[in-house]
Amino acid sequence: MLLRPALVVSSVASLALFVGCGGDDGGGDGGATVGATSTATAGDDGDGADDGVDDGADDGVTSTAGDGMDDTLPDSTGDDDADATDSETGPAGDVSVFRFASLNVRDPHFFGDTLVGCIDVTDSVPVGSSVNEQFNEAINTDMSPDGAPDGLLDLSLLLVFDPLDQADGSGGTLSFANGACPVGGGDCSLLPMTMEFPTDFTSSAAGPCDHVEAGDLSGYDPAPGTTAGPCFSAGPASVSIVTTSFTLPLEMTEIAATYQGDPATSLLSGTLRGFLSTANAEAVALPADLTESTGATNVAGLLPGHPTNCGNGDDTDGDGWWFYADFTALSAGYTG
Predict the structure, then answer these.
(1) Among 23-37, 81-95, 175-189, which stretch is predicted with the lowest mean pLDDT?
(2) Are 107 and 217 in contact (CB under 8 A)?
(3) Three-state DSSP class for residue 134
(4) N or C terminus: fewer CB in 10 A for the chain?
């Protein structure tokens, strides 16, 4: 089962960030396409869902298995030590930039009716790569579909603080941007044909900054992390996790993370919480190969609690599922 992830972020204030393959095509097919106004028209990538990515064919991020470690932040050389020497100098002034280093769905889990039975395909699978493994491989490696790496990481989601104000109760502008980031270090740049889109963030010395509802959770191990102070919170926003196989359009999403250092050199214990409605999950059709390998015809069919899912559990929260994901991010150089 091959899931090729991309990320789509849009705020309720008509902000949108469409993140595709950050390295392989430099902003063409499968690259980032950004809409900023309420009149922007969403595209269709042929997956049966209106996910806002106007790429004509697919969302174009190739990935293989990754380790997906949450709070062990791999630096640009892959040595897993997030020290200050890994940080690059960003644009002049008080702008501070962080690039996602990991992204892991924690709740609900994905279940597929495979050749070895109904199994959880979220964190590990007997053959191939799990959902979370492939997200993390795309974030941390350069694996071009044609076997010719272009020197850029496949998926680079940037958080741009302008300025970064970590004082308790303070805040400022937080922009989401799709970057082109070199393998092995060096400054990221804004992916061609994209632009930054701002929202607001608030810092807290004591925290917590995350929003976790115990009733949303289904008891998976590991459970979603918590974001203690010093930290920031941002949102609500509409966030869709997009793959070439399917899209997860999340609503009412909140994002938070703990500052590491002052000024911060990394973001730890990041949390993302958003709602996936049953209607949206049913509208996202899966391609034939994924249907063959999992028995599901749409995303809803992969989620426990839906009548077509093979699992015995029920992860639904009303008319849909509350999704929780953990992330981390490293300080990055950025030329804008």
Answers:
(1) 23-37
(2) yes
(3) helix
(4) C
| Cα–Cα distance, 268 to 264 (Å, whole number) | 10
CB of 90 within 8 A of CB of 181? no
The CA-CA-CA angle for residues 264, 157, 30, to 5°, reads 170
Q: What is the pLDDT of residue 145?
A: 56
Share of the chain above pLDDT 90, in %: 35
DSSP state of 319: S
Residues of 199-226 as b/e, b for ≥16 C-beta within 10 angstroms? bebbbbeebbbbbbeeebbbebeeebbb
Q: Supply the pTM of this predicted model.
A: 0.70
Average pLDDT for 111-127:
87
Q: What angle do CA 230, 267, 65 make, to 5 degrees?
A: 145
Q: Mean pLDDT over residues 183-212, rounded? A: 85
236 prior amide bond cis, ω within 30: yes
C-alpha dist (Å) from residue 59 to 139, 284, 325 = 15, 14, 21
| Residue 188 near residue 19, CB atoms below 8 Å | no
Band (pLDDT 50/70/90 cuts) for residue 91 is very low
Question: Do residues 99 and 157 lie in contact, with contact meaning Cβ atoms separated by under 8 Å?
Answer: yes
Domain segments of the chain as ranges: 5-68+97-331
> In the predicted model, is pLDDT for residue 164 greater than 90?
yes
- Residue 251 phi/psi, 5-degree rounding, is -110, 165
Query: What are the structure tokens assigned to 317, written together?
Result: 């929260």
